[in-house]
Design a protein that fits this description.
The protein is mostly helical. It has a domain of 71 residues. It has three helices and no strands. The radius of gyration is 22 Å and the shape is rod-shaped. About 4% of the residues have low confidence.
Length: 112
């Protein structure tokens, strides 16, 4: 085999192993951020019925249909946008330590 090909192959294999080791270090946190982002993209629309129901239960059905609908539409956009952001930036530890940018993390989680 040619000496240049052999040394090039060694460099490529070395880079592969280095990148593979680095991804294992952050796999659990980055994976959770990716999963959270995908879940929020797919379920962001659930903010609409959730907010209508919660506002109706706290106040009255008329408030649920008006205020809950408006809040639900806004939160649908916010939750889906947050999901897109987290999916696009999942390899990066932004915000610090892969913390969620919305609370609760998911649509159907109870607030703390």
């Amino acid at each position: 085999m040619n000496k240049k090909v052999t040394s090039g192959l060694i460099v490529i294999i070395s880079i592969f192993f280095i990148l593979n080791i680095a991804s294992v270090c952050y796999a659990q946190d980055a994976g959770k951020k990716l999963g959270r982002g995908l879940v929020n993209i797919l379920t962001g629309w659930l903010e609409l019925p959730k907010n209508i129901y919660e506002t109706s239960a706290k106040s009255n059905p008329l408030a649920g249909i008006t205020i809950g609908l408006a809040k639900g539409l806004g939160m649908t956009v916010v939750r889906t946008g947050a999901g897109i952001y987290e999916t696009a930036t999942f390899p990066l530890a932004l915000p610090q330590d892969y913390k969620p940018i919305l609370e609760p993390e998911y649509v159907l989680n109870k607030e703390k």
